[in-house]
């Protein structure tokens, strides 16, 4: 959508080398990804409030993508993955409601942060045993890599 493209152009134009230090590292965490999804849903709500349905649909897709990143780190935790997939299905239905211009879409978007908080609370107890744990992630990656990659 034009509004999103304009935002990306402004963002790229504002980047400076100091904003992206070569040695900077940020851990990927459950809380960070859920927070990203909340921000995307909030941006979708703001876009919808101005009548910009294409941007709202795109931002909901961004929230869904974050849930997908969480889902892959909970491999083997079927109940948690079922929760994540139910939240994704809810967002997919919400995208459809936005596309169709249904009145309840704005209310559902406004309620999504509370659902995200409940999802995070349900997932948090197993985060240390999931692939959010750097040691478990490294172990899983090492099992899948050949001993002598060429």
Which regions contain 5 or more consecutive residues with pLDDT less than 50? none
Mean pLDDT: 89
Biggest β-sheet strands, sense, barrel: none
Give the CA-based shape. Answer: flat
Decide which structural class fits the backbone: mainly alpha
The amount of beta strand, in percent, is under 5%
Notable features of this structure?
0% strand; mainly alpha; 150 residues
Outline of this structure?
72% of the residues lie in helices and 0% in strands. The chain is mostly helical and 150 residues long. It starts with a helix and ends in a 6-residue tail after the last helix.
Provide a descriptive summary of the structure in words.
The termini are far apart. The protein is mainly α and 150 residues long. Helices cover 72% and strands 0% of the residues. It is built from six helices and no strands.
């Amino acid at each position: 959508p034009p509004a999103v493209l304009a935002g990306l152009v402004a963002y790229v134009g504002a980047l400076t080398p100091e904003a992206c230090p070569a040695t900077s590292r940020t851990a990927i965490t459950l809380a960070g990804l859920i927070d990203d999804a909340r921000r995307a849903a909030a941006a979708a709500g703001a876009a919808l409030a101005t009548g910009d349905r294409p941007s709202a649909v795109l931002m909901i897709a961004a929230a869904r993508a974050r849930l997908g990143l969480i889902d892959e780190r909970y491999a083997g935790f079927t109940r948690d993955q079922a929760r994540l997939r139910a939240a994704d299905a809810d967002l997919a239905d919400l995208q459809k409601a936005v596309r169709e211009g249904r009145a309840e879409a704005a209310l559902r978007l406004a309620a999504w942060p509370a659902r995200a908080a409940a999802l995070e609370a349900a997932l948090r107890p197993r985060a240390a045993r999931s692939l959010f744990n750097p040691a478990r992630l490294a172990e899983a990656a090492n099992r899948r890599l050949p001993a002598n990659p060429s």
